[in-house]
Amino acid sequence: MNAFALSPEQQAFAASVQEIAAERLRPLAEAGAEGAVNRPLLKAMGSLGLLARLFPGVESGQPTRQAAATDLCLLREALATRSTEAETALALQGLGSYPVLQSGMDEQVRRWLPAVAAGDAVAAFALTEPDAGSDAAALTLAAEPDGDGWRLTGEKMWISNAPEADFYTVFARTTPDAGSRGVSAFVVPGDRAGLSGEHLDLVSPHPIGTLTFDGVRVQREELLGEENHGFAVAMRTLDLFRPSVGAFAVGMAQAALDATVEHTAQRHAFGGPLANQQTVAHTLAEMATRTEASRLLVYAAASAYDEGEPDLSGRAAMAKLFATESAQYVVDSAVQLHGARALRRGHLLEHLYREVRAPRIYEGASEIQRTIIARSLRRGRPGGSRTAISRPNRTPGR
Length: 398
Hints:
Elements: H1 8-31, H2 39-47, H3 69-82, H4 84-103, H5 106-118, E1 123-126, E2 142-146, E3 149-160, E4 167-173, E5 183-189, E6 195-199, E7 208-219, E8 223-224, H6 230-266, E9 268-269, E10 272-273, H7 278-306, H8 313-338, H9 348-355, H10 366-378, H11 386-390
Parallel strand pairs: 1-4
Antiparallel strand pairs: 2-3, 3-7, 4-5, 5-8, 6-7, 9-10
Helix pairs in contact: 1-2, 1-3, 3-4, 3-6, 4-5, 4-6, 6-7, 6-8, 7-8, 8-9, 8-10
């Protein structure tokens, strides 16, 4: 597939998802409680086949273990242009489930993924801690040996779908003082004794919370992948999701751009449409250019992932960095061109203005993405050639 152009079939799929989001999902999203898991929305997304699209083959009982990054990006961008709540609900399901898909045993996959695809089970990704965010290898949640399993003790913070998830992909320290080499991944049911949590109240409400592990028992069969290799499980998931965070940002930027093109064409000032003012026209041109450049970076990275190209971390970091930073500019410019009306509670741009800020932080802040990119250049050709940029070396980190 051409890395820089979507096929007609993919474009048609994206258009159909936008229509579904506007007509079927947005009303359910708006009816949900702010900051809580919206199970009716997830059930609808499952019934419509959107969640199953994340896990090809899961409905037949033979899931493909290699995730499709381009499909994930198509879904996230299309949903974000019409309903950021629906987009986030889908993304959090994928984020919590992909470690199981990629690293879980067959029994773990059969237990959880069909229910996630149907919208019946809520998944969560539990990596970040109060003192281990960007430096994920510094996590301290202790996994202490206990018979044929472990007991988990400690805290997690900024966790998707917490504390309401049906299961959590949890990263814990099985070997003290070993950095990234002493982390293991587990799939932990949400009703396990000793596991509790609280919601966090955010600028843009989402189902995000804290988790407390008070000697939570996990079995050997709940280990994801190999013991002490959990950091690689997390990084594989984040390498997949970074371009798709960029796709979320592109969707928000496109929604802001569309609204601003329409507004400036209809709004009259100084004797004509606002869009006729050169400063406005140039701002619109810059907004459109950054949005399209972001889209190209995102789908180039996704295509490279799907085609099995090596050295993906730098490319994924570029896509997330540029798309999220550009979306911030586009939404802010859209607010400026709309004026005070965009600041009223309930306006599309008021919503996007609050929503667009977080993607520059989560799943690796912009500063961390720059570090990943710089490392990939150093491990490529000296001086940073075009080859080094297009095929950056794979590096761990967030």
